[in-house]
Structure formats: structure tokens, C-alpha cells
Write a structure and sequence with these properties.
The protein is an alpha+beta fold and about 475 residues long. The protein has eight helices and 19 strands.
Length: about 475
């Protein structure tokens, strides 16, 4: 926290240093405005870096509980997706195309919410709980050997009594996001239907039967969470941030930094009113929103280490004080698992460092002993650059991996994926992942990664441009 205060002090001193020893009234006024703008920039920048992840949680929740959203459910209820994610699924983060989703937004301000799970058949499944700052709090699922039963998500400071036999799960904010995932055989309707039916047996119920929760009027249009929304780069961001902190609270380790900008109406319990600010303060906050937005998005391409062009990190899902990383993941993807559950390796460039483009053809060649070492499954998913969405294509394939029907292996056991816009000829078509016309990026997902992956000893093959 001393570091944050030093930034504010440094900007104030820098502005003061520009003041002449005997300033005229006009010079003094200009200097004061420069200092106000510099301080507002420093405070707003830190609030954004810390708060973008909270704001992203809030706007996604506000969209998903809105009755006019394409797929929606009230607070404290699962929204079960009827199929695998596709370009029209209205999932405004980087969805996988491996599992059926059941998403739920919990409001724990009036006490715990109970989740009841029946016995799950023999297939990969998981319910991941994250706080409003995207930290994975707990897992219920096949990896951790969870059994049928009832689990209680308990808010900070709650000292009540749970029913007998209920498993207690402590959380860090009063807003919680649940992601239930059940693996399917892709491109296989019968198996997808089984997974959807299974997820519909998962249920949520507030412990407090008298609690009443926020309901969105039917006349309210759903908000737009996409990063193309100007909100992410203007003063409206700070109003959204305050709503997020009012709804979900603030993690203990974020409270001090979240309160640094209260003089500007930004922080828990504050009301952000741009009309109460000076023009200089508004200029500073507007610059802060734009600069921090770009900084957060850029960080998605620089964290972790590079391995054959794939970016590797085991820090996803548990961020501690790394607020920049949490916000980068929130704006780029949202909701990633911890490394022990799944690893996510993005790539934006080919083996020579050139940006991936649908104008080119690429291959990814996995030697027989270089296939992703996993206990569950793996896949490579295609995304367009602007909003990180799945890419529409004529065969309806948005990811390719070890469960893809018809995936071909060579005689030596190797697998070559073909990444290109136009359909390849011959056997190559079975291993085709279609790309868009323009720029794209991909994620290699490894579910149940083995120790070699967690230790950084596994290097996936590079994306090679065809000459």
C-alpha cells in the first residue's frame, strides 16, 4: 500500500514542481488544476487496476439475471445452457467448447445459499466457486472426489447454524459466481443431451426462506458486458465499480486500496457523481480509465512464461495481491480454473512471432510422445480478437481435441491439427479447426494436467505457418 501512496505523492510533487517560485494568479490556478488532474489520474488508475475484475463480475451478473437477456436466470438459481457454447450463445467471456455450462450468481448478503448435487455418473464434472475478484474459493467435482449431498456457500462473518450433513464452504465476498461444467463428446447430440439433463438435477436454495432478492424489471434492457462497450473507457466505469463493491463487498486484502479514491466518490459505500468533480479531476479520471483499460488488456499477453509461443502460467484462479493479473483475466476471459483443475495456454502468434491471421494456413504437430499429458482431456479453441468470442464456420467446429469425433492420428501415433480458413483436402479435413478471415488467437486447454505440466516441463508444439 505504501507503493500506491507513493504514486499519488509522486504525481502531486511532479505537478508542484512546475509551479514558478512567484507564480501569477493564473499560473497558480493552472498548477492547482494540473495537480488535481494528476492526483485524480493516479487514484483512478489504481482503482481501475484493482476494481476491473469486480466491475466485470458485476456487469456479467446484471446481464445474466436480466429477464431480457438471451439466456438468464434469477439470483441463486442455475442457468443451464442447452448446448455447447457457440458464437450465438451470448457468453461474454472466452467459453470452452468442451463442457456444458451451468452458471449461477449468488447473493449471500442475507445468508448462505445451499447447493444440492445428486450422484454424478462416471464422467468429468466440476462446480467452481469464485469470489467477485475471480479467486477460486472451492471445488466440488470429480477431481476432488465429491459425493452427492448438500453444500453451503457461507458469507464472511456469518455465524449461524447449518442443517446436519451440510458441507460448509467459506467465501470471501457476498457475491459468488458458480460455474458447473460437465464434459461431453463434442459434435454428438445424444451425449450433449445427457449432460444437459444431468446438470438440471443440480439445485440451489437460500437457507433463509424469507429472504427476498433483487429482481430486474421486465422493461430494463440488459447491459452490454463486451469490451467494445465505451463504459470500459469512460467515467461510467466508476459507477459500475461502486455498484460491484456495494453488492459483493471487498476482499480483506483489497479494502485499503479500494478506499484510496473516496475523495473522488469512488470506493465501497461511495456515490460517484461526476458533476461534483472539477473539470481537472474529470480529465484525470477519464485518462486513468483509458490508460488502465489498455494496461489491463495488454497484461493478458505478457504474464507467465513463453513455451513455443504458448503463454504458460500456474497463477490463474488464485491471485492473492496480483490485482493486475486478476483484472487481465477478467477482461480477457473470466472465470479460469486453478492449475490443478485445468491449464489454459493462450497463443497469439506463430513460431516466428507473427500475429495469427486467417489469411495464412498453420499446423500444430503433436508427436506421439508430445500429446498433452492430462488425466481428463485436452482441446484447442479458436477465438476472434476483438471480443474474444468463438468463430462461426461452415462445419460448426469451434475447438478440436482428443475427444473430437474422427480425429486422425498418423501411423507413428502423432496428431497434426490444421488451422486455416478454407477446408483442407483429404485426410487433413478431419483435423481441421476453422479460422476467421482476420486475426485470431487460440487457447490450449488441459483438464486434469499431470505434474509435468504443472512443473513447466511440458512444452506444447509451436503453431507453424505453412509456406
Amino acid at each position: 500500500m505504501r507503493h500506491v501512496r507513493s504514486i499519488v505523492m509522486a504525481t502531486a510533487l511532479a505537478a508542484s514542481a512546475m509551479v514558478p517560485l512567484s507564480p501569477s494568479p493564473a499560473q497558480a490556478q493552472t498548477a492547482a488544476e494540473d495537480q488535481q488532474e494528476a492526483e485524480a489520474f493516479a487514484l483512478g488508475y489504481q482503482a481501475y487496476i484493482t476494481g476491473a475484475v469486480y466491475a466485470r463480475s458485476q456487469i456479467l451478473m446484471e446481464r445474466d439475471i436480466n429477464p431480457n437477456a438471451p439466456l438468464n436466470a434469477p439470483l441463486n438459481r442455475f442457468n443451464i445452457y442447452p448446448d455447447l457454447a457457440n458464437p450465438g450463445s451470448a457468453i461474454d467471456f472466452t467459453p470452452n467448447n468442451d463442457t456444458i455450462y451451468g452458471l449461477a450468481w449468488l447473493d449471500l448478503r442475507q445468508g448462505p445459499v445451499l447447493m444440492t448435487i445428486p450422484q454424478v455418473p462416471d464422467r468429468y464434472w466440476v462446480v467452481q466457486a469464485t469470489d467477485w475478484a475471480l479467486n477460486s474459493l472451492d471445488y466440488v467435482g470429480s477431481r476432488v472426489g465429491s459425493q452427492a449431498g448438500t453444500y453451503a456457500y457461507v458469507p464472511p462473518g456469518w455465524n449461524g447454524t447449518l442443517p446436519d450433513g451440510v458441507t460448509r464452504i467459506e467465501v470471501t465476498t457476498t457475491g459468488v459466481f458458480l460455474q458447473a461444467r460437465v464434459v461431453v463428446v463434442p459434435e454428438t447430440k445424444s451425449d450433449i443431451g445427457k449432460a444437459v439433463a444431468m446438470l438440471k438435477t443440480f439445485s440451489l436454495k437460500p437457507l433463509n426462506a424469507d429472504a427476498r432478492y433483487l429482481e430486474i424489471p421486465a422493461t430494463t434492457p440488459p447491459p452490454d458486458p463486451k469490451l467494445s462497450n465505451p463504459l470500459w473507457q469512460n467515467l461510467d466505469f466508476f459507477s459500475l465499480l461502486n455498484r460491484a463493491w456495494a453488492f459483493a463487498g471487498v476482499r480483506e486484502q483489497d479494502r485499503e486500496v479500494a478506499g484510496l479514491a473516496k475523495s473522488l466518490g469512488i470506493g465501497p459505500g461511495q456515490t460517484f457523481n461526476p458533476e461534483a468533480l472539477t473539470e481537472a479531476q474529470k480529465r484525470g479520471l477519464l485518462r486513468a480509465a483509458r490508460a488502465a483499460f489498455n494496461r489491463v488488456r495488454f497484461h493478458a499477453r505478457e504474464f507467465g512464461t513463453m513455451s513455443n509461443g504458448w503463454r504458460v502460467s500456474t497463477a490463474i484462479g488464485r491471485y492473492g495481491d496480483n490485482r493486475l493479473l486478476a483484472s487481465a483475466v477478467a477482461l480477457t476471459g473470466y472465470g479460469g480454473n486453478i492449475a490443478q483443475e485445468a491449464m489454459y495456454l493462450p497463443t497469439f502468434a506463430d513460431s516466428k512471432g507473427a500475429a495469427l491471421s486467417g489469411e495464412n494456413r498453420y499446423t500444430i504437430h503433436f508427436a506421439a510422445d508430445q500429446l498433452p499429458p492430462v488425466d481428463s482431456f485436452w482441446s484447442v479453441t479458436m477465438y476472434e480478437v476483438e471480443n474474444n468470442q468463438l468463430v462461426a464456420n461452415p462445419i460448426g467446429r469451434y475447438a478440436i481435441g482428443d475427444r473430437t469425433p474422427g480425429l486422425k492420428r498418423s501411423r507413428d501415433g502423432s496428431v497434426t491439427l490444421h488451422i486455416q480458413h478454407d477446408r483442407p483436402s483429404g485426410r487433413s479435413a478431419s483435423n481441421w479447426l476453422p479460422s476467421p478471415d482476420g486475426k485470431f488467437w487460440m487457447i490450449l486447454r488441459m483438464y486434469g494436467p499431470r505434474q509435468a505440466v504443472l512443473d513447466g516441463k511440458y512444452a506444447p508444439p509451436p503453431v507453424v505457418k505453412a509456406e
